[in-house]
Specification:
Elements lengths: L4 E7 L5 H10 L5 E4 L2 E7 L4 H15 L12 E4 L5 H4 L7 E3 L3 E4 L12 E4 L12 H17 L5 E5 L5 H8 L4 E5 L3 H13 L6 E4 L10 E7 L2 H6 L1 H7 E13 L3 H8 L4 E9 L2 E8 L2
Parallel strand pairs: 6-7, 8-9, 8-11, 9-10, 11-12
Antiparallel strand pairs: 1-3, 1-4, 2-3, 5-6, 12-14, 13-14
């Protein structure tokens, strides 16, 4: 029996259309349709749909500070009648390059033949992270750079809000000796576990639903691709998990939110090394002072 699908429709001002569409794609929609002042996205009707609706409402509240008046009209959820939708959505996913190190590909497509790039196979599902979103790409590019800097030194990493597991998998393939990947969503952990096995990195990646503050160890590298609001909520715990002279990669931040994030982290503890911007999204690379 095929899984039923839902169409989400919401009105949005033109400047916000791309940001909203990207957010919905990374929350599990296989694609998005942009019309004049509307975004349409598609989600499998799974047990996670209630949590997903809360995440979307939270994001809309956050982005409303940037686009006043946005979100005043209700979100519409409509069941899809197309019998083949459970397979036809796959047309939205094609292999794509990220940085200099990776090809990201879905499992139903033969991976490209390449010696220069590593293949990451991701089963898209109701979990964040397919590699197509600007925030995921920004993180992957910084992780590639930091792994190159580490050279032969041991690299330990923490992936906060792992979603599909794509960043943890990338870290393992880049040579990290151990990666702890945490998420409080059981569906995301199930998806991540499957992707970790699919990519053959289960010996290096430990998946957990442990709360961040309960993790005792510190790491050379911590990455958190979340939302600005969640990053601020977890700021104290994130700071503690980065070892002295270690790195913190933060993403899921819209350009108008950067100042607030930097005021919280760029103090006596962290130095902003670099940032990248792709469309409305900014990824920050911070180094902890020794």
């Amino acid at each position: 029996m095929s899984v039923p699908w839902l169409q989400l429709s919401l009105k949005a001002p033109r400047p916000a259309l791309d940001a909203v569409a990207n957010f919905l794609i990374e929350r599990g929609s296989p694609g998005a349709v942009l019309k004049k002042n509307e975004v349409r996205a598609f989600f499998a009707d799974s047990p996670r749909i209630t949590a997903l609706r809360r995440e979307i409402q939270r994001f809309l509240r956050d982005i409303r500070r940037i686009y006043p008046g946005f979100g005043e009209q209700p979100i519409r959820w409509t069941p899809l009648k197309e019998n083949n939708w459970s397979h036809s959505w796959r047309r939205f996913f094609t292999p794509h390059k990220v940085g200099k190190a990776f090809w990201i590909t879905p499992p139903w497509v033969d991976p490209p033949k390449t010696r220069r790039r590593q293949i990451i196979t991701i089963e898209p599902g109701m979990a964040f992270g397919t590699g197509s979103h600007a925030t995921t790409r920004g993180c992957l590019e910084f992780l590639e750079e930091l792994a190159s800097r580490a050279g032969g030194d041991e690299l330990t990493a923490l992936d906060v809000g792992t979603g599909s597991g794509i960043l943890a998998i990338a870290l393992a393939k880049l040579g990290a000796s151990s990666v702890v990947a945490v998420d409080n969503d059981p569906t995301a952990l199930k998806v991540a576990r499957g992707n970790v096995r699919l990519n053959g990195v289960w010996r290096r990646v430990t998946l957990s639903n442990c709360r961040l503050e309960k993790i005792a160890e510190c790491f050379n590298l911590v990455v958190a691709n979340l939302t600005a609001e969640t990053i601020l909520e977890l700021a104290g715990a994130l700071e503690e998990k980065v070892a002295a002279r270690g790195y913190l990669v933060l993403s899921g931040i819209l350009k108008p939110q950067v100042g607030q994030i930097l005021r919280r982290f760029s103090s006596q503890k962290f130095l902003l090394e670099r940032h990248t911007r792709q469309k409305e999204w900014v990824t920050l690379l911070l180094k902890k002072r020794g």
